[in-house]
Amino acid sequence: MTVERIKPDDFTKTPAAPAPRPNFGSAMIPKERYTSADYLRLEWERMWTKVWLLGCRLHDIPEPGDYHVTTIGKEEILLVRQKDGGVAGFYNVCLHRGNRIMAGSGHAETFKCQYHFWEYGLNGDFVNIPDLESFPQGAPPCKGLRAVKVDTWNSFVWFSLNPEAEPLRDYLDPMPEHLDPYHFDRMVKVMDVTAEWDCNWKTSVDAFNEAYHVQGIHPELLYFIDDRDVQIDLYGRHNRYLVPFATISERVTETTEIPHLIKHVMKEAGMDPARFDGRVTEVRKALQAFKRANGAAMGLDYSDLNDDQLTDDYHYNIFPNLTLNTHADDLMLFRQRPHPTDPNKMFFDVMMFKLLKDGEEVPPKPRHEQFRHGERSLGLVIDQDAYNLPGVQAGMNSDSFPGLWIGDQELRIRHFHHVLESYVGE
Amino acid sequence: MDLDLRGMKAAVTGGTRGIGRAIAQLLAEEGCDIATFGRAPERVEAARVELSALGVRVHAEPVQGRDGAQVRQWMQASVAALGGMDLVIASLSAGGGTDEEGYWHRNFEIDLMSAVRAVDEALPALRQSRAPSVLVIATMAASETFVAPMAYNAIKASLITWSKQLSQKLAPEGIRVNCLSPGPTMFKGSNWEMIKVARSRIHDKVVRQQPLRRMATAEEIARAAVFLASPAASWCNGSHLLVDGGYSKRVAF
Lengths: 426, 253
Fold this sequence. Notes:
A: alpha+beta; Rieske Iron-sulfur Protein; seven-stranded antiparallel sheet; 25% strand; B: seven-stranded parallel sheet
């Protein structure tokens, strides 16, 4: 059964129509991109240091002096709320002997290196160099910490190591048009963890860029999403797919009872599955109508979202390393960061955000935690996703494996590599 | 053994899928005209086409089983379309749920009241039959603690009680009433098929309790059901037959 999507004349702010689909051919994707230290180095020189990257959330640093240290490859970037309310970013490197200055996040009046107490202001300028007179050459000729480009969008702080980087909005285009209607600024962070995974960062990006794996590793989702009726859209650097939720896969047969995950989302929205007399395949549209009719009374503003967005997963990849599962009531954001030197390792950041109802008490901010793969659960579905990744990485390193054999359900992987090639080369 | 069903007219509630569909199939193969209903128009149509292909008359409509008036009208239309009624098999079920209040109302209307209403509307026609019978499909979960306390189990238990006492009342009129309780049953589109895929631990735990390490097929339930409903079971009245492959362990003295 084909899922009914919103029609061209229906209300939507987020573009919903299928985008033109360029032909990226069917060539094998070389496995060296995932396994070679040389490629990792080229990726750093030609891509990571050129693009815009997500650093933190504006809510992470609300007051002047609040800071957050984010890591990309070998670099740490100190993101700081300024006295004028703006945000600045600096390499987290003391100009004296190179020591790291700050760690994690917190509040500071000045940034003082804990080695010889060189001290910098919130704007990065030198505040104090102990015994400056003992340096015959004087202070370093720069004013202070080396700055990086910083900008903000939709409640997030972004930075670029590329002094020549185009404006953030141009880089993200057309993501703001797509994602502004979700109003991420109205959501609060409820989970903030980093898992160390034994795979390349792209092995992880790929894992979320196709729905083909659902039948392989997420059997329970066959009774919650339609993994076969997925709209794939490719835009410049970025891409997305639209996955119908609150329905069942074409791979399974409709049941009399409503599957438990569908019941769960009905109840979350305040709809009683026991009193729903329609069929399982009629729940999705009914749930959309219910949320449209009752959202405002429940203190949830869905007015900028189209009907499909009230149930479905609008799933974006913002190049290079962000995976956004956007839903009307929550955002699951995955940030994939490379290991500085080992192509077989990466850092998987999971940030979960929840839309608050009007007047709902803001839950305490989650403390960031980092652990190794398997030490803690990331929830059933992400655990299922993570399960295969070390095996995929190990297998890609085998001499017998030439490269990735990609099908049409995995078109976003092909598009991602097309963009990656435009930075790194073949 | 001749079940003596040829030319009889049988109404099966919820006969477009699962156990009900298998019963309708077997009855049609034995030569019964069939009346049935279900919720999904395309499954109603498929059942009509497939059963008609066996050379019997078929009356099938899409009906919402919670709607009492629709169920009653369906039985009236069925009697009119087939020119009488000999067998009523009350097979419709809303399936399980949780212990929340909404499910009590749901199973009350769909499992219990659809049976009561269908039998009530069919009685005048049954009284004209040469070998009338009513078969109520309950569940093993009515007499065996199973999965979790829920409306489905308890409402099905009320069907067992009702069918027994109805059998006493209708026996003098020559109308037999029996009840059959299937154990866990697997078929295409069954809730157990979904549970096997989506909550495999619950499924596996149930299968481990089965001495034969599998669930019933709908056809295995249907064979027992068709016998009980047929004139061949002429001395079965007020019986409650458990067809669970040995899932339940209690010795029922």
